[in-house]
Specification:
single chain, 38 residues, flat
Length: 38
């Protein structure tokens, strides 16, 4: 069973990667990396 935070992280990752694919600023990927290291 996945922890809720892990699920939330994956949803955020999916949203950010689609945003990056759309050409959003790279800041989001930096924030995602920071979140992933926790």
């Amino acid at each position: 069973m996945m922890p809720l935070t892990f699920r939330t992280y994956w949803r955020a990752a999916a949203a950010i990667s689609s945003a990056l694919a759309a050409g959003t600023s790279p800041r989001s990927s930096v924030m995602l990396r920071h979140m992933a290291q926790r």
